[in-house]
Prior knowledge:
Blueprint: E1 3-6, E2 14-17, H1 22-25, E3 35-38, E4 43-46, H2 50-63, H3 67-78, E5 82-85, H4 96-99, E6 104-108, H5 115-119, E7 125-131, H6 134-142, E8 146-152, H7 156-165, E9 177-181, H8 186-190, H9 198-224, E10 227-231, H10 241-251, E11 257-260, H11 268-274, E12 278-281, H12 285-292, E13 297-299, H13 305-310, H14 315-319, H15 331-343, H16 346-360, H17 368-383
Parallel strand pairs: 1-4, 2-3, 2-5, 5-6, 6-7, 7-8, 9-10, 9-12, 10-11, 12-13
Helix pairs in contact: 2-3
Amino acid sequence: MRRLHYVPKVNSEVLVIDERLSNFLLKCIPKHCEFTIVKNRGYIPYVRSISFFIKLVIFCTRFGLTSKSIMLAIIDELKPKVVITFIDNNVAAQGLNLVHPEIRFISIQNGVRTLRNITKLNKINFDSYYGFGLFEKESFLSKGGSFVNYYPSGSLKLGLFLSKYNYLPNKIKKNKTICFVSQYRSEALLHNNPSNTSVGDLLRDFVKISEDLYRQTVNYALLNDYTIHIAMTYNAGDSDYSAEKSYFQKIIASDVVKYFDNDLDEMTSYKVAIESDLIIGFDSTLLMEMFGCNKRVVWGLDSKFGFAKAWGLEAYPMYIPSELILVNLNKDSFDNKLNNLLLMNDEKYSNLTKKSREYFINSERPYVHETIKHDIDEYLSTNG
């Protein structure tokens, strides 16, 4: 049940869609700018004025009673110069620039975009899109999407983390630690039962591969004197945290495993990952971000290329060096892959991954929040 969200009728230069993850997004807005946050996910936003409802009726005749119509009526009422969102797959924020070309619409990539989830957003028109790298640009264009401006600027959260803690990944001493990136989702486990649906089959395969990957990782750590640090999906205060921890303990329980909750304010997942000798997971955003930092990573795609394609990951084996991708999950192959990566010298690893890192994700300064803050300042000074 969606609740009503009252949006005050104030003059703001920047309109933020939506409240979720806005604590990161506000780092992109110059301090001198007035801004308004519009709650969208789980809410129906509105402005308490007759003119807003008149505009809403007009937009509903064009686009139906949709989130897009509501958002356009709010924009017409508040008249911001910049609209910004960190949820690039937010339907309410897509295509608004076609109605209001005089406004700067900024979308920031919030997670890895595989060909599978890009297909769901095909033929979407973005104004200014700040993506991880060139992979997303080429993928969107290949699916019929378009951009007015595309900036391969990297990950917003990673940039904030690196600038806050000033980490230099290659200077961190090795400590015999492997970070396992949890992609636990309770909804995925609900599909882990007999089903004839293609979605159910796909999620069951994902759960099985993820569990096999974790089991092999723990066994490797036991035999090679490593500690496993799990970068958890949930924060310790979340209702699903205990279930997530129990899930891993049921797969394989071991004293070499330590659990680190996902504290967004402290950015603990980034700390755990960047301080590890190697990061392993399936297709998580954190895995890609650490890859961009020149950390040693392993994608557990498994030998079934058909599954990788169905999951939208067919580009990964084509662009990422084979040394970083598991072709199967049998013990010998798994152990050899990790041994080779952990023993490889830094220069060789950097040269091996340089081309694909530059293609998938930028991790150099200026970071995303610095770039966007500058771009908004420049835009407002020109169009003020």
